[in-house]
């Protein structure tokens, strides 16, 4: 018998609290696989703010810091400047990153801070009951938009990487999803590249992951994956949005 897969060393051996069909567990594993493959477990500092991933430190077996809602980029800035030899990343949801934390994100990106961001977009505030987030799609029903999001009252959904693309300090932006094995593999490559951008001193990078939230979407796990493909991907197109990794300083 040949072992094909095993639990990454950077991931603790315990059950997760996430809802059935949630994408956080998949992305957690990808991050841990990447950290193991790069051999940086002892050098990593992860930062997780309020949201469904608020207790991510229960699953990651490396240094983690829990911070206030939206403040992960600000804390990451401080940690990376004090410990420039460490590999610092933030793990943030769309309600956290694109709403209360959008100022911290934009200014960290504008300054070209040398950490990477893993951004989970499930188009709602997952932890607090499924309210509308900045990434909620037009027409999407949430607990605060029961008849669907409308432009007149709520504006348009934010495309975060496209918002950051013009900033000179941003070196790498990519949007991926985890709806099938091929997309999971692409997501892992993107996450790995974002860590390499930092390790190679190329400064700020962000990977957005379109991720399912079956509980708040009121869908089965399988239908939630289909919803991403049919509804989210047309508005949030997948692929590399910016890549300056070959740029010479």
TrEMBL record:
Family annotation (CDD domains): TPP_OGFOR (cd03375)
InterPro entries: 2-oxoacid:Fd_oxidoreductase, THDP-binding, TPP_enzyme_TPP-bd
Cross-referenced SUPFAM superfamilies: Thiamin diphosphate-binding fold (THDP-binding)
Keyword set includes Membrane: no
GO molecular function, one term: oxidoreductase activity, acting on the aldehyde or oxo group of donors, iron-sulfur protein as acceptor
Domain Thiamine pyrophosphate enzyme TPP-binding as annotated: residue spans: 57-209
Keywords: Oxidoreductase
Gene3D superfamilies: 3.40.50.970
GO annotation terms (biological process): cellular respiration
Record-given protein name: Thiamine pyrophosphate enzyme TPP-binding domain-containing protein
Lineage: Bacteria, Candidatus Aerophobota
């Amino acid at each position: 018998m040949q072992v094909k897969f095993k639990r990454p060393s950077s991931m603790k051996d315990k059950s997760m609290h996430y809802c059935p069909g949630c994408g956080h567990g998949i992305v957690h594993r990808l991050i841990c696989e990447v950290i193991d493959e790069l051999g940086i477990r002892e050098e990593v500092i992860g930062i997780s703010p309020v949201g469904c991933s608020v207790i991510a430190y229960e699953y990651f077996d490396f240094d983690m810091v829990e911070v206030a809602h939206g403040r992960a980029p600000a804390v990451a800035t401080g940690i990376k400047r004090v410990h420039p030899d460490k590999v610092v990343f933030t793990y943030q949801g769309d309600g956290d990153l694109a709403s209360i934390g959008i100022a911290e994100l934009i200014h960290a990106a504008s300054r070209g801070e040398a950490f990477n961001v893993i951004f989970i977009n499930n188009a709602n505030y997952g932890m607090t009951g499924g309210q509308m987030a900045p990434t909620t799609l037009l027409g999407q029903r949430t607990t605060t938009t029961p008849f669907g999001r409308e432009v007149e009252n709520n504006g348009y959904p934010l495309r975060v990487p496209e918002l950051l693309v013009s900033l000179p300090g941003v070196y790498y932006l990519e949007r991926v999803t985890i709806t099938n094995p091929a997309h999971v593999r692409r997501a892992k490559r993107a996450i790995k590249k974002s860590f390499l951008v930092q390790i190679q001193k190329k400064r700020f990078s962000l990977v957005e992951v379109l991720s399912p939230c079956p509980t708040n979407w009121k869908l089965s796990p399988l239908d939630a994956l289909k919803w991403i493909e049919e509804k989210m991907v047309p508005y949030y197109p997948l692929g590399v949005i910016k890549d300056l990794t070959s740029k010479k300083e």
